[in-house]
Amino acid sequence: MDEANPLVGLGPPATGVEDAVAVPAVHDGQPPATIQRPATPLPRVPRTWLIDVVLFLAVGAVLYALLSVAPTAMHRPTPSVTIDLRPSVLPAYTVLSFLRMVEAYVLSLIFTLVVGYAAAHNRQAERILIPMLDILQSIPVLSFLPAVLLAMIALFPGQTLGLEVGAVLLIFTGMVWNMAFSFYHSLLTIPPDLMEAARMFRLSPWRRLISMELPAGVIGLVWNSMLSWAGGWFFLMACESFTLVDKSFTLPGLGSYLAVASSKGDFRAILWGLGTLIALIVTLDQFVWRPMIVWSQRFKMELAEDPSPPHSWFLDLLRRSDALAAGQRAIATLLAAVTRRGSRAIDATMRTVPRVRGTSRLASAWWILLGVLVVGVAVAGGSALIGMLAKVRPPEWRQIAVGAGATTVRVAIALLITFAWTVPVGVYIGLRPRVAKIAQPLAQIAASVPATALFPVLLLLLVRVRGGLNVASVLLMLLGTQWYVLFNVIGGATGIPRDLIESAEVLKLRGWMLWRSLWLPAVFPYLVTGGLTAQGGAWNASIVSEYVTFSGKTLQTTGLGSLIAASSQNGNYPLLAASTVTMAAIVVVLNRFGWRRAMRAAEERYHL
């Protein structure tokens, strides 16, 4: 570490503080100067518009394929499910919804580890996977909802299995993107000295993964997992119950219970459903997430011990259990034996992925083949999608343009409000474990309560206010997006090493100088991840905030989300495709010119 600047080169694990941190240096009463050392840029892969265009057309081809089977699936028989609003059925409904959430989270975690690792270690993989993640997270989940569910119904006619698979896949798409981006960024920003140490000790790919790369991403994965569950609860109502052209598709569950209660205006049932959901969230917080937060602190890289580390009564109870300790030792012994026997095969498999973002002939051949397949799908399906878009009339295109402008303004307002309060509050909570012990479960409860269930209450309060639905739609966007930034900022502040904080105290940094030198650089990578996913969440929320059905009445305002919701309800598939493609294109352009540059800064400057 640079002796002249105790803050240089230190930071939170896997993302951390800027490699060139500005620190005040006092020289005979002169104004503070900036002490810096040049950051070593990480190797980057050039990304071109051609890749984005090809992947965009490929995703559009998938959308066209799904929409093309929708009319056929509409005429297939589907099991009729009646949602009972009695409180006695809530335990069974809660179990069903919880199992769907678990299935979607397991899929999200597997996808995150595989895709994040491949993109961080292989250049060809990164060229395809990262733009693909950008495009997929930009496409609103709710615009794919009717297409995916109807496609699943067509695959499993007359069964609820199609609806079950479709609901899990859609919840998965609401969970996975922030986790994947978090793990990918964690691998990119592992300290170079640790990478060098791994090479000096000749760690195999498997050993490097379990001893260095997974620990580097643990803190970000834990906080983003909590956030993913909150996002899953947000979309649960839409995934378990939706209406298309006067035909209802419903799965029994807590989300459908809240959706039916909201559509009927039954406030008593809404309160019962929200109470059950809050009880489940608190239970998960105390028995799962709080122990995971405490456990993840063991992977925090610091030289000074935190005087007041976070605690979990349940984790302390588990650690005092002799039976569990014996079981843990037995499992550890078994895993060690399996690892010893299988490590050679695992290492041989992982070596097919180059170690340091390199290439190999076999890997290159596979990625070239994949690229050819993607281009073929993009050309064939993209041309078919263009044919569908040609059916949209000029007045409808003007309506799409006006709606896109209105929704963009609402999303921008929601994001500005989000950053204005989540950054200072998140840093404050993350630096104070005692405050975090109380605030974190409260924030998780607030983030997990589906905003669509609260929307009827907001409408009753704001419907008589000037610009009622416009104001209410921005508030609903806030309820669905601000948590992405808050949880990531809390996670970033939690990961700041204690010795870095003590160095700032020794230098007597205060006010803006402290924020500019330490807090903002430390949380910047987390802020980028949170802001990127929050933007996607805001566009998704526009679909349920600009078009609302309550007590048999439909309220809507000008916007792209309103067009998507209305065309989905009416079965106007060309307008649905055009609105979805327009929304995805706007988000991709924003990512290309805004968020990717912020990611580059986080990877090259703001890391350990």
Please explain how this structure is put together.
By secondary structure, this protein is mainly α. 74% of the residues lie in helices and 4% in strands. The protein is built from 20 helices and six strands. It has a two-stranded antiparallel sheet. Strands 3-4 form a two-stranded antiparallel ribbon. Strands 5-6 form a two-stranded antiparallel sheet. A hairpin with a 2-residue loop joins strand 1 and strand 2. Helix 9 packs antiparallel against helix 14. The N terminus is likely disordered.
Essential attributes:
single chain; 6 strands; two-stranded antiparallel ribbon; MetI-like fold; disordered N terminus; mainly alpha
Number of strands: 6
Tell me the fraction of residues in β-strands, as a range: under 5%
Give the proportion of residues in helices: over 70%
- What's the CATH architecture name? Orthogonal Bundle
Alpha-beta classification: mainly alpha
* Model regions low in confidence, pLDDT < 50 over at least 5 residues: 1-47, 353-359
CATH topology: MetI-like fold
- Arrangement of strands in the largest sheet: 1-2
The global form is: globular
Give the overall pLDDT as a whole number: 75
